[in-house]
């Protein structure tokens, strides 16, 4: 009986498979690009929607980002994870959309001034309901969605990349173009804001926000 792959081995296997597929796409098998990006479509949409808070805008951003990724596929370097590279493209596209439309900042959970909030960010998942899920799960999921939407942009994108998309600290930093230390600081603040917003739920003994997210396997849970 074959042994299950460890996380590092699984990641290496995925990277090798994606590298081979990228080579084939660049060699002319264009239809393979859809298979290459399929595992990341939900998380990319969730990232865009979390920042833009508009379904149509998020869909447009994802489609434009995937077109850019296809056109720039030759520039992808295997030192980065393909998923991180895609996330960076979506982040930049969403940021550009926000700058162009001059979106009015929304009220955050934490009203205390923070010089770090001058930073303009961006970040994707399928929000459709699963018919068989319990009412409690639906209620908790909606609470988490609302809490994420209330986070200031710079904290929201870090939270989504790290705790929903489950990128590592290093991968999140690379996608955002900031230092790893800054990712850790923003992630801590984001988690504290989420806990503050969700305090009533967390006090019911249901296990806590982050355990619930982990149980749901990140973006696929949404």
TrEMBL record:
Any GO MF annotation of the entry: sigma factor activity
CDD domains: Sigma70_r4 (cd06171)
Domain RNA polymerase sigma-70 region: 36-102
Record's keyword terms, sorted: DNA-binding, Sigma factor, Transcription, Transcription regulation
Domain of life: Bacteria
InterPro entries on file: RNA_pol_sigma-70-like (IPR039425), RNA_pol_sigma-70_dom (IPR014284), RNA_pol_sigma70_ECF_CS (IPR000838), RNA_pol_sigma70_r2 (IPR007627), RNA_pol_sigma70_r4_t2 (IPR013249), RNA_pol_sigma_r2 (IPR013325), RNA_pol_sigma_r3/r4-like (IPR013324), WH-like_DNA-bd_sf (IPR036388)
Residue ranges constituting the RNA polymerase sigma factor 70 region 4 type domain according to the UniProt record: 141-193
Alphabetical list of Pfam families matching this protein: Sigma70_r2 (PF04542), Sigma70_r4_2 (PF08281)
One BP term from GO: DNA-templated transcription initiation
NCBIfam families membership: sigma70-ECF
Similarity remark: Belongs to the sigma-70 factor family. ECF subfamily.
Name of this chain's protein: RNA polymerase sigma factor
């Amino acid at each position: 009986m074959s042994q299950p792959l460890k996380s590092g081995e699984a990641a290496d296997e995925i990277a090798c498979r994606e590298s081979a597929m990228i080579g084939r796409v660049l060699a002319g098998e264009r239809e393979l690009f859809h298979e290459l990006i399929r595992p990341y479509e939900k998380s990319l949409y969730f990232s865009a929607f979390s920042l833009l808070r508009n379904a149509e805008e998020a869909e447009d951003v994802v489609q434009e980002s995937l077109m850019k990724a296809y056109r720039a596929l030759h520039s992808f370097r295997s030192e980065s994870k393909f998923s991180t590279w895609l996330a960076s493209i979506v982040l930049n596209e969403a940021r550009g959309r926000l700058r162009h439309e001059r979106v009015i900042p929304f009220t955050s959970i934490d009203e205390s001034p923070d010089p770090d909030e001058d930073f303009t960010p961006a970040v994707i998942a399928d929000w459709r309901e699963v018919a068989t899920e319990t009412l409690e799960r639906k209620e908790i999921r909606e609470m988490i969605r609302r809490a994420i939407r209330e986070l200031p942009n710079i904290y929201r994108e870090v939270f989504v990349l790290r705790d929903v998309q489950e990128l590592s600290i290093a991968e999140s930093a690379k996608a955002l173009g900031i230092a790893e230390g800054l990712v850790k600081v923003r992630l801590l603040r984001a988690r504290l804001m989420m806990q503050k917003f969700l305090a009533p739920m967390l006090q019911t003994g249901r296990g806590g926000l982050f355990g619930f997210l982990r149980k749901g396997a990140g973006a696929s849970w949404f």
